[in-house]
Amino acid sequence: MPDLAAIVIHCRDPYLLAPFWSAVTGLPVADEDRTRLADRTLGPTEAVLLRDPAGHRPDVWISPADDLPAPGRIHLDLVGDAEERAAVLEVGATVVRELPRWTVLADPEGNEFCLLPRTEAHADPLVPGH
Fold first, then answer.
1. How many Cβ atoms are within 10 Å of 60's Cβ, its own excluded?
2. DSSP of the chain
3. Fewer CB atoms inside 10 Å of the end CB: C or N, the chain?
4. pTM of the full predicted structure?
5. Are 73 and 25 in contact (CB under 8 A)?
6. Cα–chain-centroid distance for residue 22?
7. In this predicted model, which residue has the larger pLDDT, 125 or 52?
């Protein structure tokens, strides 16, 4: 089966979401995008690359798109403890709802993602489309 190479997050404002997802994933903005992001000189269709310098994790592209549906352009499941949850909230996530096994959060543009405790990450399969 193919390996996961990258995740693309479509957004309205890459200047808002690239720093958010960089902080949440711990993936730095690639050198070639860092200056354009800081100077706000991205072209209207230019995406921002978040890349693991060691090459162990998939790339994450923050890609602008004109016509976007309601939240649901992507859904990620992340694992973390209480300290990591606080850090995600500090960089701009909001709690959408608390469920028994995980918390549904939203990024600054309203895209939902889940935060699971590490004990749930490899437990019984989660409900599809949670």
1. 24
2. -PPP-EEEEEES-HHHHHHHHHHHH-PPBPHHHHHHHHHT---TT--EEE--TTS-S-EEEEEE-SS--SS-S---EEE--HHHHHHHHHTT-EEEEE-SS-EEEE-TT--EEEEE-GGGTTSSPPPTT-
3. N
4. 0.76
5. no
6. 8
7. 52
